[in-house]
Amino acid sequence: MHMKLGVVYYELLNPSESITGDSIPNTVDEIEPNSEGKTPSTLLQIQQIILLDDNARPHVTVPVKNYLMKVLDWEVLPHPPYSPDIAPSGYLLFQSMAHALSEPWFTPYEDTKN
């Protein structure tokens, strides 16, 4: 998880460990306020958390998506499928451009230049 100020939270796994759909809610709970109401000071400045998803299997399971979006009220920004080289902002831009360009029809080449 990143902010303009830098990394908010990270966790190192042992070489034999891996991330599963069941372990993600436990990890996310470390970021959210704990039962005593203590929150890392950097998170107190955040009004909304937007998580960039990377399409890894554990991240896209239905229980994980429901937990992040419905329980924690986080926005999950999907990573563009099959396009790791396109930034998410570019993906959203191209998606809106595709909609705008779906209406006009250009027949001769000269019409496309204007």
Automatic annotation (TrEMBL):
GO MF: nucleic acid binding
Protein name as annotated: Mariner Mos1 transposase
